[in-house]
Design a protein that fits this description.
Layout lengths: L5 E2 H16 L5 E4 L5 H9 L5 E3 L8 H4 L3 H7 L4 E7 L6 E4 L7 E5 L1 E6 H9 L7 E4 L22 H7 L5 E7 L5 E4 L3 E9 L1 E7 L10 E11 L4 E6 L5 E4 L11 H7 L1 H4 L5 E6 L3 E4 L4 E7 L6 E9 L4 H11 L12 E2 L22 E3 L11
Parallel strand pairs: 2-3, 6-13
Antiparallel strand pairs: 1-20, 2-21, 3-17, 4-7, 4-8, 5-6, 9-19, 10-18, 11-17, 11-19, 12-16, 12-18, 13-14, 13-15
Family: Belongs to the JARID1 histone demethylase family.
Protein name: JmjC domain-containing protein
InterPro entries: Cupin_8 (IPR041667), JmjC_dom (IPR003347), RmlC-like_jellyroll (IPR014710)
């Protein structure tokens, strides 16, 4: 088959123009002091597929004062059976060395156990001991099933978002972990309203237009298995073997690997800066559908990071068609800078799901939200 080639300037112009015309200059995103009206949210954020951080998002929620207390959680959820994810590193649904060919990578999923909440919380608190990291989460509407006794402490949906989007959340999920749990780059086909209750979450964000910078490739799927008797993990490939399309880039390579990673993934490391945002307790991040995101977290004084998120179905409209067209474009990266052209050698992901009345303008301030400080330069 004849190889398709496009000039790198075409892709680079797209990256720059979407920032200049719509998204703004990274690492900044819009910072709203209070929630927008439904019309403002639809007009300024959902329609342009643009993230924002909302400070006083949920000041009336009892969860903000109640959930940081482990005693309250243990009492309220004393009989609840919950899903606990276990890994040796805190990195689940991410790339790790292949179990039989360590020079290659595979896509590893966590070992999942159903435990009584008090026991599960003990394991989260003890994460890092005995080379085991525990994370309370299950991306299947777990808040409305496993954590139903906590329902009165927050809203069943975000009213202004539900009105703007035109539906109720498809799923509501709860996340309880510590600083050892990390989420690798991926995207979701949902409009995501992410509220931090305790601790902080640090997001690295790239818009869907930057899909080529993610170096999405097919990796063999594998599963961690935890053996209680020995306290050890084994990693086993799925049988029959299957492949998962996943983002190859780690935005935080270790110092001794950084140069090699930059050489492997130049479109990411040499391209426009990603957007970065730190979401603190009581704040809400609107993460638009199909945005690539990497997440780290830090706990509060109790040693826990707690968050809840609302997934609303996205509209599979013209922007979805545009994204599918864009990701189908082949690209390559020539070693000769005078012939800097782009060709996609990993384009087997055409249909993949990576996981997976007049109102006044919104009041917006600009903030470098990586560390919560205003107007800080690199």
């Amino acid at each position: 088959m004849e190889e398709e080639i496009i000039e790198s300037s075409s892709i680079q112009n797209l990256w720059e123009e979407v920032r200049d015309l719509s998204l703004g200059n990274p690492p900044y995103i819009d910072h709203l002091p209070t929630p927008p009206t439904p019309l403002q949210f639809l007009r300024h954020y959902i329609t342009p597929n643009k993230p924002c951080l909302i400070s006083a998002a949920v000041p009336h929620w009892p969860a903000l004062s109640l959930w940081p207390s482990a005693a309250y959680l243990r009492t309220t959820l004393s009989t609840a059976a919950v899903s606990l994810h276990l890994t040796p590193t805190g990195k689940a649904d991410s790339l790790t060395p292949h179990p039989t060919a360590p020079s290659s990578l595979c896509f590893a999923s966590a070992h999942v156990e159903t435990l009584a909440f008090p026991e599960a919380l003990d394991l989260v608190s003890a994460s890092g001991e005995n080379k085991t990291v525990a994370y309370l989460q299950q991306q299947n509407d777990c808040f409305r099933s496993e954590y139903a006794p906590l329902a009165a402490d927050c809203e069943a949906h975000i009213p202004w978002a539900s009105e703007a989007i035109g539906c109720s959340p498809e799923a509501v999920n709860l996340w309880i972990g510590n600083n050892l749990s990390e989420t690798s780059f991926h995207k979701d086909h949902y409009e995501n309203l992410y509220v931090v209750i305790s601790g902080e979450k640090r997001f690295v964000l790239l818009p869907p237009t930057d899909v080529h910078r993610m170096y999405i490739r097919d990796y063999p799927a594998a599963q961690y298995h935890y053996h209680k008797d020995s306290g050890e993990f084994t990693l086993e490939l799925d049988d029959p073997i299957r492949y998962v399309p996943w983002c190859s880039v780690d935005p935080y390579p270790s110092p001794h690997e950084k140069q090699r990673e930059m050489e492997k993934f130049p479109l990411y490391f040499n391209g426009p800066k990603p957007f970065e945002v730190t979401v603190k307790a009581g704040e809400m991040l609107y993460l638009p559908s199909m945005w690539f995101h990497h997440v780290r977290q830090s706990p509060d004084d109790t040693g826990l990071t707690i968050a809840i998120n609302y997934w609303y179905d996205m509209q599979f409209d013209i922007k979805y068609a545009y994204f599918n067209f864009l990701q189908s474009i082949p690209y390559t990266l020539s070693n000769d800078p005078t012939l800097y052209k782009i060709r996609n050698m990993e384009s087997r992901f055409e249909r993949f799901l990576c996981n997976s009345g007049d109102e006044s303008d919104v009041i917006v301030t600009k903030r470098d939200v990586r560390d919560g400080s205003d107007n800080e330069e690199d």
